[in-house]
Structures are given as structure tokens and as C-alpha cells.
């Protein structure tokens, strides 16, 4: 039985510096510079930058990046996310080609693609999603692909278009436990995201989701979410620490100790999930290459 650490009150923690286990390296090095140049040259967006990901230095230094298609302005206003919110004006039919060429030049073995929500589009951007995967497979047939897709608001025809282009892993993040949805994801629905994961599994894809911890959830609520996800066909779960991107976003309720992350990993496996990536700095696409064959 794991001895779980005593966590300080949330009020005290938000006024102190981050724990030592949340320190990250600054982005430097030859490979980082190469990825930086490709992103700039091809006028691409990455969730690494738009989402202020703490692992950008590590991942870009290893020659990988998570590309974000359909622009960098989201129609949702989730209270945890650093991506800009508003009315998108970008819809670039040439984007799939540019993304595919950049991935080919990078020579990556595993690519991760995500996007903002485009609720104003009838097909939620599904046609661009489909063509992007087709173009990547055409130029880099040996590259495996994970697509981290948004909530389609029950547009199941759009969902099928998004996931039918040959990608190996399809991820859709539930982000938090059910009780916090109104606060964290006000334009989303917990049960609808579970249904989306179930439909992706029924289509025959390897399924994946991510949850942020430290927003005020209880251990029992995390266990309940694991059970719900397993019951809806989830294969892979990522658990990471929520970090407040700006003062305008939700404050961190608590910093979760690495020992508790290790405990959650064991609990997830015990409850029927095939693979659990759990740690303070874990994000949706962290070590994504490991999730293709689990």
C-alpha cells in the first residue's frame, strides 16, 4: 500500500513557488533550433507554444512537436487553457500539405496532430482533419499518427470523417472529473465526451484521453473517472499536474505529489486501462510514441 503524502491547503500552495518536481529545462540545442525553423518557415501552429507546454524544450530537443491545425483561435473558452479564444478567421485549405511536408522534413517516426475547437464550422473542421492525415501518410507512409481531436458536439458524421483517414491513435481529452466540468469546461459535457470516446473505440481505433489534476478533484472522483473511461473503451490515460497559464485562468488548487501520481497509475491499470502515463509534467502528447502499440 502506497503511503500518500500530506498535501498542504490549496490557499497556502498558490501563494508559494512551485515544488521542485515541477522544474523544467529551458529549450535549447540543435534539434530545438531545427524544429523552431521548420515551424516558422511553414507558418504552422503548435500546441506546444499555444498551450505553454512545460515539455516543449524536451520534445522539440528530441525533434518532435505537436502540430495544431485549423488556426490558433478557439471557439471555446475553457478556464484552464492558454489558447486564444474568439471568432476564428483562419481556414487554410493548403494547411494539410504544409503540415505533411514539415513532418517529412523532420523525419519523425510518430506525429501528433491536434486542433482548436471550430464550433462555427458545420463539419467542425473534419475535412481539414481528414486531408491532413491523408497528406502525412502520402509523404511519410511509415510515420504513425496520433490525432488529439476536439469535442464535435455530437456531430457523429464529422467524427467519422476525422478518424477515418488512417491514424493509429485517436485521443479526446476529458480534461477533468465530472463535478468540475461547469467550472473547467463550461461549453462541454462530461457524458458527451465519454460517448465520443466510446464511438471512437467502436470504430476500431486505439483510444486515449487526458486528465489534469490539482483543480480540486478528490481521489474518489479520479477513481470514478477511471471507471467511466474504462467502461467506455478507453485504452490509454494520461494524468498530469494542472498549471495556471495566466492570472486570468483558474488557480491551482493543489500541487499533486509524484507519489500520488504513481498511485493513480497503479489504480488505473487495476481498473482495466491498458496504459497509464502519470506524472506532474505529463501532458497529452508526452511520450506519445509509446502509445501506438500498447
From TrEMBL:
Its EC number is 2.8.1.8. Signal peptide: none annotated. One of its GO terms (cellular component) is cytoplasm. One of its GO terms (biological process) is protein lipoylation. SMART domains: Elp3. Keywords: 4Fe-4S, Cytoplasm, Iron, Iron-sulfur, Metal-binding, S-adenosyl-L-methionine, Transferase. Its main location: cytoplasm. It catalyses: [[Fe-S] cluster scaffold protein carrying a second [4Fe-4S](2+) cluster] + N(6)-octanoyl-L-lysyl-[protein] + 2 oxidized [2Fe-2S]-[ferredoxin] + 2 S-adenosyl-L-methionine + 4 H(+) = [[Fe-S] cluster scaffold protein] + N(6)-[(R)-dihydrolipoyl]-L-lysyl-[protein] + 4 Fe(3+) + 2 hydrogen sulfide + 2 5'-deoxyadenosine + 2 L-methionine + 2 reduced [2Fe-2S]-[ferredoxin]. Residues 60-274 form the Radical SAM core domain. InterPro entries: Aldolase_TIM (IPR013785), Elp3/MiaA/NifB-like_rSAM (IPR006638), LIAS_N (IPR031691), Lipoyl_synth (IPR003698), rSAM (IPR007197), rSAM_sf (IPR058240). [4Fe-4S] cluster 1 binds at residues 48, 53, 59, 285. Pfam families: LIAS_N, Radical_SAM. It is found in: Cytoplasm. Pathway: Protein modification; protein lipoylation via endogenous pathway; protein N(6)-(lipoyl)lysine from octanoyl-[acyl-carrier-protein]: step 2/2. GO terms for molecular function: 4 iron, 4 sulfur cluster binding; lipoate synthase activity; metal ion binding. PROSITE patterns: RADICAL_SAM (PS51918). Belongs to the radical SAM superfamily. Lipoyl synthase family. This is Lipoyl synthase. It comes from Rufibacter immobilis. The lineage of its organism: Bacteria, Pseudomonadati, Bacteroidota, Cytophagia, Cytophagales. The gene is lipA.
Amino acid at each position: 500500500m502506497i503511503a500518500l503524502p500530506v498535501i498542504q491547503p490549496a490557499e497556502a500552495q498558490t501563494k508559494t513557488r512551485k515544488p521542485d518536481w515541477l522544474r523544467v529545462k529551458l529549450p535549447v540545442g540543435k534539434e530545438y533550433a531545427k524544429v523552431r525553423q521548420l515551424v516558422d518557415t511553414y507558418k504552422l501552429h503548435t500546441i506546444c507554444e499555444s498551450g505553454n507546454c512545460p515539455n516543449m524544450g524536451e520534445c522539440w530537443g528530441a525533434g518532435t512537436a505537436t502540430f495544431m491545425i485549423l488556426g490558433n483561435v478557439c471557439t471555446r473558452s475553457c478556464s484552464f487553457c492558454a489558447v486564444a479564444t474568439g471568432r476564428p478567421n483562419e481556414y487554410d485549405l493548403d494547411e494539410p500539405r504544409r503540415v505533411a511536408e514539415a513532418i517529412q522534413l523532420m523525419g519523425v517516426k510518430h506525429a501528433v496532430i491536434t486542433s482548436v475547437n471550430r464550433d462555427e464550422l458545420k463539419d467542425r473542421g473534419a475535412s481539414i482533419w481528414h486531408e491532413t492525415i491523408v497528406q502525412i501518410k502520402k509523404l511519410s507512409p511509415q510515420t504513425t499518427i496520433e490525432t488529439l481531436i476536439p469535442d464535435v458536439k455530437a456531430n457523429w458524421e464529422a467524427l467519422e470523417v476525422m478518424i477515418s483517414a488512417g491514424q493509429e491513435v485517436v485521443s479526446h481529452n476529458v480534461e477533468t472529473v465530472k463535478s468540475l466540468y461547469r467550472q473547467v469546461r463550461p461549453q462541454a459535457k462530461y457524458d458527451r465526451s465519454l460517448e465520443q470516446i466510446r464511438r471512437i473505440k467502436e470504430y476500431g481505433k486505439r483510444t486515449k484521453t487526458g486528465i489534469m489534476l490539482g483543480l480540486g478533484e478528490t481521489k474518489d472522483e479520479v477513481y470514478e473517472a477511471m471507471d467511466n473511461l474504462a467502461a467506455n473503451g478507453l485504452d490509454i490515460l494520461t494524468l498530469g499536474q494542472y498549471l495556471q497559464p495566466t492570472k486570468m485562468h483558474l488557480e491551482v488548487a493543489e500541487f499533486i505529489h509524484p507519489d500520488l501520481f504513481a498511485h493513480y497509475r497503479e489504480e488505473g491499470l487495476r481498473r482495466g486501462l491498458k496504459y497509464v502515463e502519470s506524472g506532474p509534467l505529463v501532458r497529452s502528447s508526452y511520450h506519445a510514441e509509446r502509445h501506438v502499440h500498447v
